Amino acid sequence: MRFQDRTVAKMVFQVLKEAKQKFGCNINIFTLMGNHKHKDIQVMADGPQISKIMNWINFTTARRYNR
After folding, report:
1. Of 17, 21, 14, 25, the residue nearest 50 (C-alpha)
2. Does residue 4 or residue 26 have the better pLDDT?
3. Contact 57, 15 (CB under 8 A)
4. Is the pLDDT of residue 3 over 70?
5. How many Å apart are CA 21 and CA 24, to the nearest integer?
6. For residue 4, is pLDDT > 90?
7. Concatenated DSSP letters for 15-39?
8. 12-58 pLDDT tens trace
9. How many beta carbons lie within 10 A of that of residue 11, not counting itself?
10. How many CB atoms sit inside 10 A of residue 12's CB?
11. CB 4 within 8 A of CB 12
12. How far out from the chain centre does Cα 52 lie?
């Protein structure tokens, strides 16, 4: 996945926005590089585990990219 493409970058940001709404987590820092990304996600004590959130983000991003 190449993030230089504005369409791909917008899609990634949209997925993160949806994750924030869906799981109630905070996305403190997000950096989109040329071929990878860095993120700092803060989960709530009574919310889902980080593994569930990351699984959803990665699965949703890949699914939308492959369309």
Report:
1. 25
2. 26
3. yes
4. no
5. 5
6. no
7. HHHHHHHHH--EEEEEEE-SS-EEE
8. 889 999 999 999 988 888 777 777 777 788 888 787 898 999 999 99
9. 18
10. 21
11. no
12. 12
d(CA 49, CA 45): 9
User: Token match 């699914």: residue?
Assistant: 63
pTM of the model as a whole:
0.80
What pLDDT is stored for residue 1 in this prediction? 56
Report strand pairing: 37-42 vs 26-32: antiparallel
Sign of CA dihedral 53, 42, 20, 31: negative
> How many residues are there in the chain?
67
For residues 11 and 60, is the Cβ–Cβ distance under 8 A? no
Residue type, 33: M
